[in-house]
Write a structure and sequence with these properties.
By secondary structure, the protein is mainly β. Strand 5 and strand 6 form a beta hairpin. It has 3 helices and 33 strands. The protein folds into 3 domains: about 140 residues, Single Sheet (S-adenosyl-L-methionine-dependent methyltransferases); about 120 residues, Jelly Rolls, CATH 2.60.120; about 220 residues. The strands form 8 sheets. Strands 19-18-22-16-24-25 form a 6-stranded antiparallel sheet. Strands 2-10-9-4-7 form a 5-stranded mixed sheet, covered by helices on one side.
Length: about 475
């Protein structure tokens, strides 16, 4: 290998002037096949380039991926000390080339990353275009299932960056805000109901997935805010206030029978017994401590934040969220000072229950409510006007079932050619089945061995983006060797 191939590359083309970069489509570059067998001393793979005919090209190879700016482009190579110029020439209309490699010189599992830089010889390196990148993987199997995403990406299902066509790439992290009110909700100018009550209160709300806007992947609930009635705040401090979030299997149906004008599923809402509403084991106490309600904390959009979460609640992206507040009484404060904005859902009925509350001094309730020991409350077909903020970093892709080239396959340790910038991660799971329809499918497992003996193999990739930047992980090639 060259001791400093990057410097050699730069010196070789130093004669070219750095002009302005013309607008052009990214050249397309791909391999076939994507796997190299260590049992072979020589193996030929074909690579293809579809770019600007007449350009000079340089095919680069590196043992490490990256995100490296060079000549106005960003290359997917690290430009490590191992980088090499493999081939160079002119882009032709055929754009197909053989590449001869010696797989037995590499350790098993070695990924080799390739990318082409091309430029107009009349404009110099300032006209550089970086192609899409591709990878080869060296392994010890006699056969293997390979996934090169140029072909297989359209067959994946899930939530990921579908705009990237040559690899499986995560979506960047996304912060989003929702107001989980059904479209038929209508404002009710009613004072007295509130999450902060001097005589104590325990309140549960069923926030349906349809209004939460989940897409079936997990995301973190980072903030919860409520809207005070008329936008006015009276200062008050509660020594003990708790915010809880759970998943729930309750999905209230607010559909109205057009003939009787009554709800079609009145019993589809929450139970008046608080403990029956969360999904067992899913409750997270997001905050527990004092809560000072102050006018200066009111946001320009009219919402007032609950305290910053102390503990993370991860929403599964598809369930109802049961949002619960527990406010201990402070008798010295007297009457209710800060009511919440309320939206009704079913004009003709209190059911199905979207909210269950126990409010000290409320109609039919004790003068003081101790929320931690209060087991039931009153139900109603209404919701407080909440604003929820989510952070989504997760992408998930599920493949089709791939047919094994062996009749009784023994799947070996899988290998990936992937890039995980700091703050990102990739996790793979596998399962086997008897046919492409998934008959007698095994459970998902982080090991491909779960599918041993099964004629079809499927994978699921979970990719986590960096929550604090635009950095995302990607997978270029996946190979599962077979003995």
């Amino acid at each position: 290998m060259m001791s400093s191939p990057l410097r050699a590359l730069s010196a070789t083309f130093a004669f070219a002037s750095l002009g302005s970069l013309p607008v052009a489509q990214q050249p397309s570059f791909f391999f076939f096949p994507h796997q190299l067998f260590r049992s072979q001393s020589s193996q030929t793979v074909a690579w293809h380039l579809y770019g600007r005919v007449g350009d000079i090209y340089a095919l680069l190879a590196d043992l490490a991926p990256g995100s490296t700016p060079l000549f106005g482009q960003t290359f997917d190579l690290a430009f490590s000390p191992s980088v090499l110029v493999i081939q160079a020439g002119l882009v032709t209309s055929t754009s197909a080339h053989p590449l001869v490699l010696a797989p037995n010189t590499f350790p098993a599992g070695t990924p080799l990353f390739f990318q082409v830089g091309e430029w107009d010889p009349n404009l110099g390196l300032g006209s550089m275009l970086a192609s899409t990148s591709e990878a080869l993987i060296v392994h010890d199997g006699t056969r293997g299932i390979e996934v090169g995403f140029v072909y297989d990406l359209p067959l994946l299902t899930g939530v990921f960056d579908h705009a990237v066509s040559h690899r499986l790439q995560a979506l960047p992290s996304l912060r989003r805000t929702v107001h989980p009110l059904p479209p038929q909700a209508y404002a009710i100018p009613f004072a007295g109901l509130t999450p902060v009550r001097a005589t104590g209160a325990r309140v549960q709300h069923a926030l349906r997935a349809a209004e939460l806007g989940g897409v079936g992947v997990r995301e973190t609930l980072t903030a919860v805010r409520w809207r005070p009635l008329f936008g006015s705040i009276v200062p008050e401090t509660f020594q003990q206030f708790e915010l809880r979030a759970s998943h729930s299997d309750v999905v209230p149906d607010y559909t109205i029978d057009p003939w009787g004008l009554i709800p079609v599923a009145p019993l589809s809402g929450l139970s008046q017994t608080f403990a029956q509403n969360p999904r067992p084991g899913s409750t997270v106490s997001m905050y527990s401590g004092s809560y000072s309600v102050q006018p200066q904390a009111l946001l320009p959009n009219g919402y007032l934040p609950f305290p910053v979460p102390q503990t993370t609640f991860v929403y599964d992206g598809s369930s109802t969220i049961l949002l619960e507040t527990l406010c201990d009484p402070v008798p010295a404060l007297g009457a209710v000072h800060n009511s919440a904005v309320i939206y009704g859902l079913v004009p003709s009925s209190a059911q199905p229950y979207a909210t269950v509350h126990a409010s000290g001094g409320g109609a039919g309730q004790p003068p003081v409510v101790i929320p931690a020991t209060t087991v039931s409350g009153q139900g109603g077909s209404f919701l407080f006007d909440y604003e929820l903020e989510f952070l989504r970093t997760t992408s998930v892709a599920t493949s089709r079932f791939f047919a094994s080239p062996a009749s009784n396959p023994d799947y070996m340790q899988y290998h990936v050619a992937a890039y995980t910038p700091p703050g990102t991660s990739i996790a793979l799971e596998f399962r086997g089945a008897d046919d492409a329809l998934g008959t007698n499918a095994t459970a998902w497992s982080p090991s491909q061995d779960v599918a041993d003996g099964k004629l079809f193999l499927q994978f699921r990739a979970t990719l986590e983006a960096d929550p604090n930047s635009t950095a995302v992980p990607w997978i270029d090639t996946l190979v599962v060797p077979i003995l």
